[in-house]
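User: I'm writing a short methods note and want a consistent example. For Cytochrome P460 domain-containing protein, I'll paste the sequence; you return only the C-alpha coordinates, no commentary, since I'll be parsing the reply automatically.
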Amino acid sequence: MLFSARRYFTFLFTLLFSSSVFADSIASYPNGWEDWPVVKESMNLPADTVLPPDASLFMQESVRAYSWINDGQGSPLTIRVNPKKLEEYKTHGPYSDGPTVIAVSEAQGIIWVTEHFGGLALYGSYNRKGEDISSMHSSLEPAFCQSCHDTYKDICINGTCTEPVSSLYE
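Assistant:
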Protein backbone atom coordinates (compact mmCIF):
# COMPACT_ATOMS: atom_id res chain seq x y z
CA MET A 1 0.00 0.00 0.00
CA LEU A 2 2.91 2.35 0.75
CA PHE A 3 4.20 1.99 -2.82
CA SER A 4 0.79 2.85 -4.24
CA ALA A 5 0.51 5.92 -1.99
CA ARG A 6 4.01 7.05 -2.98
CA ARG A 7 3.19 6.56 -6.68
CA TYR A 8 -0.05 8.48 -6.23
CA PHE A 9 1.64 11.45 -4.54
CA THR A 10 4.43 11.45 -7.13
CA PHE A 11 1.80 11.63 -9.83
CA LEU A 12 -0.02 14.50 -8.07
CA PHE A 13 3.24 16.39 -7.56
CA THR A 14 4.09 16.00 -11.24
CA LEU A 15 0.61 17.05 -12.28
CA LEU A 16 0.63 20.17 -10.11
CA PHE A 17 4.18 21.36 -10.66
CA SER A 18 5.16 20.32 -14.17
CA SER A 19 4.32 22.76 -16.93
CA SER A 20 4.86 20.18 -19.66
CA VAL A 21 2.40 17.65 -18.25
CA PHE A 22 -0.52 19.62 -19.68
CA ALA A 23 0.85 19.52 -23.22
CA ASP A 24 1.36 15.77 -23.33
CA SER A 25 -1.09 12.96 -22.75
CA ILE A 26 -1.30 11.81 -19.16
CA ALA A 27 -3.18 8.56 -19.81
CA SER A 28 -1.04 5.87 -21.35
CA TYR A 29 -1.63 4.36 -24.79
CA PRO A 30 -3.24 0.94 -24.24
CA ASN A 31 -1.59 -1.59 -26.55
CA GLY A 32 -4.10 -4.16 -27.76
CA TRP A 33 -7.11 -1.81 -27.57
CA GLU A 34 -8.23 -3.10 -30.97
CA ASP A 35 -9.38 -6.29 -29.23
CA TRP A 36 -11.43 -4.49 -26.56
CA PRO A 37 -15.20 -4.94 -26.91
CA VAL A 38 -17.18 -2.19 -28.60
CA VAL A 39 -19.80 -0.89 -26.17
CA LYS A 40 -21.16 2.04 -28.16
CA GLU A 41 -21.07 3.59 -31.60
CA SER A 42 -21.70 7.28 -32.00
CA MET A 43 -20.50 10.26 -34.06
CA ASN A 44 -18.28 13.29 -33.99
CA LEU A 45 -20.89 15.48 -35.65
CA PRO A 46 -20.07 17.64 -38.70
CA ALA A 47 -19.31 21.33 -38.21
CA ASP A 48 -22.57 22.40 -39.88
CA THR A 49 -24.74 20.34 -37.51
CA VAL A 50 -27.82 22.15 -36.24
CA LEU A 51 -28.61 20.67 -32.87
CA PRO A 52 -32.19 20.42 -31.60
CA PRO A 53 -33.16 23.20 -29.17
CA ASP A 54 -33.19 20.77 -26.24
CA ALA A 55 -29.65 19.46 -26.88
CA SER A 56 -27.65 19.31 -23.68
CA LEU A 57 -24.85 21.77 -23.00
CA PHE A 58 -22.50 18.79 -23.10
CA MET A 59 -23.60 17.98 -26.66
CA GLN A 60 -23.31 21.62 -27.72
CA GLU A 61 -19.78 21.80 -26.30
CA SER A 62 -18.83 18.51 -27.98
CA VAL A 63 -19.95 19.71 -31.42
CA ARG A 64 -18.14 23.02 -30.95
CA ALA A 65 -14.94 21.41 -29.65
CA TYR A 66 -14.63 18.72 -32.32
CA SER A 67 -16.11 20.43 -35.39
CA TRP A 68 -12.63 20.49 -36.95
CA ILE A 69 -12.37 16.69 -37.14
CA ASN A 70 -12.19 15.26 -40.65
CA ASP A 71 -12.18 18.77 -42.13
CA GLY A 72 -15.52 19.50 -40.48
CA GLN A 73 -17.24 16.47 -42.01
CA GLY A 74 -17.61 14.54 -38.76
CA SER A 75 -16.63 10.96 -38.13
CA PRO A 76 -18.02 7.72 -36.77
CA LEU A 77 -16.96 7.31 -33.14
CA THR A 78 -16.40 3.87 -31.63
CA ILE A 79 -16.26 3.40 -27.86
CA ARG A 80 -14.30 0.41 -26.53
CA VAL A 81 -13.85 -0.69 -22.92
CA ASN A 82 -10.98 -2.57 -21.38
CA PRO A 83 -12.41 -6.10 -20.96
CA LYS A 84 -11.07 -6.19 -17.38
CA LYS A 85 -13.26 -3.17 -16.59
CA LEU A 86 -16.56 -4.06 -18.27
CA GLU A 87 -18.37 -4.61 -14.98
CA GLU A 88 -17.01 -1.33 -13.61
CA TYR A 89 -18.12 0.46 -16.80
CA LYS A 90 -21.67 -0.90 -16.49
CA THR A 91 -22.02 0.90 -13.14
CA HIS A 92 -19.86 3.91 -14.16
CA GLY A 93 -17.21 3.00 -11.63
CA PRO A 94 -15.56 3.38 -9.36
CA TYR A 95 -12.71 2.24 -11.58
CA SER A 96 -9.59 0.28 -10.74
CA ASP A 97 -6.18 1.52 -11.90
CA GLY A 98 -5.20 1.29 -15.55
CA PRO A 99 -6.59 2.09 -19.00
CA THR A 100 -10.38 2.09 -18.87
CA VAL A 101 -12.05 3.23 -22.09
CA ILE A 102 -11.12 4.59 -25.49
CA ALA A 103 -13.05 6.54 -28.09
CA VAL A 104 -11.86 6.21 -31.68
CA SER A 105 -12.69 8.86 -34.25
CA GLU A 106 -12.66 6.44 -37.17
CA ALA A 107 -12.18 8.91 -40.04
CA GLN A 108 -9.41 10.91 -38.37
CA GLY A 109 -7.78 8.03 -36.47
CA ILE A 110 -7.82 9.89 -33.16
CA ILE A 111 -7.83 7.69 -30.08
CA TRP A 112 -8.96 9.36 -26.86
CA VAL A 113 -7.91 7.37 -23.81
CA THR A 114 -9.38 7.51 -20.32
CA GLU A 115 -7.29 5.79 -17.69
CA HIS A 116 -7.83 5.68 -13.95
CA PHE A 117 -5.22 5.96 -11.24
CA GLY A 118 -6.02 6.20 -7.55
CA GLY A 119 -9.64 6.99 -8.37
CA LEU A 120 -8.72 9.86 -10.70
CA ALA A 121 -9.55 9.93 -14.40
CA LEU A 122 -6.57 10.70 -16.65
CA TYR A 123 -6.79 11.58 -20.32
CA GLY A 124 -4.69 11.24 -23.44
CA SER A 125 -4.94 11.56 -27.23
CA TYR A 126 -3.06 9.33 -29.64
CA ASN A 127 -3.04 8.30 -33.28
CA ARG A 128 -3.38 4.67 -34.39
CA LYS A 129 0.41 4.22 -34.22
CA GLY A 130 0.34 5.11 -30.51
CA GLU A 131 1.97 8.50 -31.01
CA ASP A 132 0.88 11.28 -28.67
CA ILE A 133 -1.10 13.86 -30.67
CA SER A 134 -2.40 15.97 -27.79
CA SER A 135 -0.56 19.03 -29.12
CA MET A 136 -2.25 18.73 -32.54
CA HIS A 137 -5.32 20.70 -31.37
CA SER A 138 -6.32 22.35 -28.10
CA SER A 139 -9.33 20.01 -27.76
CA LEU A 140 -6.97 17.02 -27.59
CA GLU A 141 -4.99 18.29 -24.60
CA PRO A 142 -5.58 16.47 -21.30
CA ALA A 143 -6.45 19.75 -19.53
CA PHE A 144 -9.28 20.33 -22.04
CA CYS A 145 -10.61 16.81 -21.52
CA GLN A 146 -10.38 17.17 -17.75
CA SER A 147 -12.20 20.51 -17.78
CA CYS A 148 -15.09 19.22 -19.88
CA HIS A 149 -15.45 15.94 -18.01
CA ASP A 150 -15.37 17.79 -14.68
CA THR A 151 -17.91 20.38 -15.85
CA TYR A 152 -20.43 17.77 -17.02
CA LYS A 153 -20.22 15.31 -14.12
CA ASP A 154 -23.90 14.42 -14.59
CA ILE A 155 -22.96 12.91 -17.98
CA CYS A 156 -19.28 12.12 -17.38
CA ILE A 157 -19.56 9.90 -14.34
CA ASN A 158 -16.19 9.00 -12.81
CA GLY A 159 -14.54 10.31 -15.98
CA THR A 160 -16.48 8.33 -18.58
CA CYS A 161 -19.22 10.10 -20.54
CA THR A 162 -22.57 8.48 -21.22
CA GLU A 163 -24.66 10.67 -23.55
CA PRO A 164 -24.82 9.09 -27.02
CA VAL A 165 -24.99 11.63 -29.81
CA SER A 166 -27.05 9.34 -32.00
CA SER A 167 -30.04 9.48 -29.64
CA LEU A 168 -30.56 13.12 -30.65
CA TYR A 169 -31.38 12.02 -34.19
CA GLU A 170 -33.39 8.83 -33.66
